[in-house]
Amino acid sequence: MFFERHGLDSTNLFQIKNFRLERYPVHFHLAYEFIWVEEGMLTMNIDGKQQHFMAGEAAIIFANQLHDLHLTKESKEHFLLFSPELINDFHKEYKGQIPITNKLIFDQKPALDMLDNIYEKKRFLYDLCARIVDQMDFQPAVQVDRTTVIYDVLLYVEENYQKNINLQSLAKELKYDYTYLSKLFGKLMGMTFTEYLNHYRISNTLFFLDNSQYSISDIVFKCGYNNFRTFNRNFKQIVGMSPTQYMKK
Q1: Which CATH number fits domain 145-247: 3.10.105.10, 2.30.110.20, 1.10.10.60, 3.90.550.10?
Q2: Considering only CA atoms, which of 63, 57, 61 is closest in space to residue 77?
Q3: Using one digit for the tens of pLDDT, what is the confidence trace for 23-43?
């Protein structure tokens, strides 16, 4: 799942992902994320700074870095989420720091699906760490007040998206001024709270469609929708096709 516990479900997380949408709104993980571009170009806003990644380049996202994804139909990327515990020595040394830029030259296709055991996975990850240290400069990770607010909101959505929530109820629950929160969210996220919530729910829907035996009706209600009309409208708007068309692909 794209937002699954912000990417950290176990201490041995090593999760290869394939994403289907062209845009994923701002989010963060407690895990590290490695994205290798095989074809085309990937555009990301990472901690508010836009960066472009071309074929043969990789993005490395540290834990808690706010970022979004803009993919194109012509591009091809490979995604990997992995827990800090798998690179414990590196994580301890660089905890509290982030890259000044997140670009990594990685001109050979990583054979992620060929890493069959924990030792091969760790060998790949520590080679990745060596490349990071050789190629990147670092700076202290500074979390400003408004970023803390966004973290609180994203975490609240993750924990409550299956319920009937809106920004007003969220603001009341988290004790933020609604008007302030609405303006801040729109400015930092580039979309309204409702738009973000719909993207979040549909992203989870795609995960269940691809990776579970749940019926479509079970998935709809599991992802926070209480009627099919709203679900179908949001699904088509975000994915570009109906749920039926998607399942036939």
Answers
A1: 1.10.10.60
A2: 57
A3: 788 888 889 999 999 999 999
